[in-house]
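Hi everyone, sorry if this is the wrong subforum. Our group has a chain we'd like a structural model of before ordering constructs, and none of us has done structure prediction before. Sequence below.
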Amino acid sequence: MIARVQSYALSGLDGVTVTVETDVSKGLPAYEIVGLPDAAVKESRERVRSAIKNSALEFPLHKITVNLAPAYVKKEGSSFDLPVAVSLLKASGALQAETENTVFLGELALNGDLRPVTGVLPALISARDKGYTQFVIPYGNRKEAGYIHGVTVFAAKTLKEVVDHLSGIAPLAAVETTPFERAESGETRSYDLSFVKGQAVAKRALEVAVAGGHNILFVGPPGSGKTLLARAIPSILPDMSFEEALEITKIHSVAGTLGDDGIVKNRPFRSPHHTATTVSLCGGGNKTVHPGEISLAHGGVLFLDELPEYQRSALEAMRQPLEDGVITVSRASGTVTYPASFMLCASMNPCPCGNYGSSKRRCTCRPNDIRRYHARVSGPLLDRIDIQVEVDGVEYDDLVSAAEEETSATVKKRADVARNIQRQRFMDGKITTNAEMGEKETRKYCKLSEECEEILRDSYERLRLSARARSRILKVARTIADLELSEDILPDHLYEAISYRSYSGKQDELE
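Answer:
Right subforum, don't worry. Here is the predicted structure as tokens:
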């Protein structure tokens, strides 16, 4: 007898329907799984066998063949345990139930318990989009499934509960739909801009960067507040919409980094150590193509502290995602595309000793050492960082001053206003921030007066900027104008935007 049960496999964030076909026939006892399974899927034979026996159900002592169709799609992970067990029980006659329109996902323990699996959210969304409306999943995945509308989801703790539900003996209650609640704007955070004393220029640059989604680089001596500024970014980022939260949650669900809430409510802030490899940053793996740090930072911030200490190959691999907002990872097992639209925040010292250009400490580095240090960050990567700010040490009087610094909540309000202007501006397109503008949008929304054009022309030649740098100056100037609630880009806006590229121009002094 042949039984069929529906399940789902993932290719990146996209789901692929997998039909689990089981044939139980007369012959010597044997148990085979075909259909391009990986090691985890092959091992399900023993998990399924033990789970069925320990659930007081009868395991058939016949020739068993399980096919995972389509055979050309590689099947990975342990989420096929439950559909294999259900199809086997149906094929042996131990279960009489209609399951054609139900999708099953879940890993089985040897005692028959259902364990949570990764990637449930994107799998269920893909299945829903293809017409499936009923799902049976592990109880541990119920929270993330509760945010999917228009479907009926049953969460079970054991295989026996699934069998009793399908048989009508003890139907499971459907998982209730959970309303999305944004993280509170006034939420207490570990870092706030009010903790940063002085550094008015750096704070202003950070506000502009967040308002327009621009990449930013802090350059300064140790202890000047670069890391503290970066850590305060989440406190001024705009709140997420439900659609953004779902997209980000799908990535974290696949990566297995989803929290207890079942959905990501705060924008990600990823800060990998400088020993991170190219694969850990960009994604990949020997067999399964996992999302990397730049995808886990999608919709949020990727903070690279001590930028020159990262592997050169890892930094260069980020150049294309910084432009396109996606990354395509190709391996022998397949090609997967993950979203990678993030705000890059980086920090670095100006030289190996950290004091080059400081007004308070003397640099002890030789010119060649400084050149080699700067060469660790390539020009093309630096060219993709819109805002580059030099940060010097803080005066002692500023550190002990009782004057209250501007809070993150105040800065966030201004940044939110600028973001709303941009959402209205790009409401007919796929982009939401000034940093995402292409050449077409830049020409339309970043028109300059003759005076501004002359200012930009002079800076272009004096600082020896690239065409990309010019375009990014225009985008930053557009963001500054939005913060000032100005319809046009004025000379002051352009001067400020140009000042944020001065660090690249100063690199010529080392030549």
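For your construct planning: The longest strand covers residues 14-25. The chain has two domains: 2-167, 193-510.
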